Amino acid sequence: MSRDFPDPVEPSSLGRGKTIAIVASVYNSKYVDAMLDSATAELEKVMPDAKRPVFRVPGAYEVPVVVSYVAEHGQPDAIIALGVVIQGATAHADLVGESVTTALQEIACVSQIPVIHEVLLVETEEQAKARTMGAEINRGTEAARAAINMVELFHKLDTVYPSNSSGDSQS
After folding, report:
1. 120: buried, middle or exposed (CB in 10 Å: 19+, 13-18, 0-12)?
2. CA–CA distance, 147 with 113 (Å, rounded to integer)
3. What is the pTM of this model?
4. How far apart are CA 30 and CA 133, in angstroms?
5. Distance CA 20, CA 59 (A)
6. Which residues are catalytic?
7. pLDDT of residue 11
8. What are the helix and strand counts (H, E) for the chain?
9. Residue 21's beta-bridge partner residues?
10. How far apart are CA 59 and CA 104, in angstroms?
11. Looking at residue 13, what is its pLDDT?
12. What is the pLDDT of residue 166?
């Protein structure tokens, strides 16, 4: 696992009129809430004018369906998906992790809305704590920085490749 955070982002004027939605599970709330708090604090610091709606779901498995709904109906500029799955004695955690990962990637590609995947699959509670509450690694902060970077990148892409309302492709 990389210990390199995305670089801190300078406060941006791009926040005005932008929306970064967060979908977070309630299960393993101690860890997910820590990521949510870190992500929200980073977004507030860097994009104080951006809207940041938060939607809570029961568990990690429910994250993709709400991400999909938000992508389709809310058209946010980015979506952050947060959850923690702790490995048990069965393959359940692996199946949930794989399913969530595949679904989130598909939603991002189909909707062309960046989906920041921080539904963590960890082996122990110690790993969960280190990744969600630690100063060295904080996946909530990383998720916010990744979302901000993707919003800025998509703004640049829209500038380079503006939408063509007539439906003709750009050359």
Report:
1. buried
2. 10
3. 0.88
4. 9
5. 21
6. 92
7. 55
8. 5, 4
9. 79
10. 15
11. 56
12. 45
pLDDT for the residue 169: 47
CB 88 within 8 A of CB 30: no
Per-residue tokens: 116:
């920041």
Q: What is the pLDDT of residue 137?
A: 82
Instruction: Profile the chain (171 residues) by mean pLDDT over runs of 10 residues.
Output: 55 74 97 97 92 96 98 96 90 90 97 96 93 87 94 90 60 44
Instruction: Please provide residue 38's backbone torsions phi and psi, each rounded to the nearest 5 degrees.
Output: -65, -45
Q: How far is CA 3 from CA 59, 82, 122, 133, 148, in A?
A: 26, 19, 16, 14, 19
Residue 109: alpha-carbon gap to chain centroid = 14
Give yes or no for a contact between 122 and 30, defined as CB atoms under 8 angstroms apart: no
Q: Where are the beta strands (DSSP E) in the chain?
A: 20-25, 54-57, 78-86, 115-122
